Amino acid sequence: MSYIYETMYILRPDLGEELTDQAISKYQNILREQGAELLETQHRGKRRLAYEIKKQREGVYVQMNYSGPGGAIAVLERAMRLSEEVVRYLTVKQEVTNEAAPAEEAEA
User: Does residue 95 contact residue 37 with C-beta atoms inside 8 Å?
Assistant: First the structure.
């Protein structure tokens, strides 16, 4: 069974464009090194946070969608946890099912 993962993370807003791009590349490379296949990376830009996190009121949102082994997530999240640039992160697992299943249910 194959899984697709989505990791959304928030970078500090004071990093600047160049350091932000370097951080995004760093996390993409960590996933590639762990055998994950990147499907999509979206740089969602700077947004105001709902509440203050680590004395930050804003953050740069980045979303990565990828498929790969579960062990890759542990390595990625450990790097984010130890990083000064990441304010918050969340990974969600999405199960990939057979595409025909929803169509069969609709006919019944």
Answer: no
Strands 37-53 and 86-95: unpaired
pTM for the predicted model, two decimal places: 0.83
**Percent of the chain at pLDDT above 70?**
86
Count the neighbouring beta carbons within 10 Å of the beta carbon of residue 99: 7
Residue type (1 letter), 96 = V
Q: Is 75 helix (H, G, I), strand (E, B) or coil?
A: helix
Q: Is the dihedral of CA 8, 12, 17, 23 positive or negative?
A: negative
**Left if phi > 0, otherwise alpha if psi is -120 to 50, otherwise beta: which for 28?**
alpha
pLDDT at position 100, please? 43
Report the phi/psi class of residue 82: left, alpha or beta, with left for phi > 0 and alpha for psi in -120 to 50: alpha
d(CA 27, CA 89): 12
Count CB atoms within 10 A of the CB of residue 81: 9
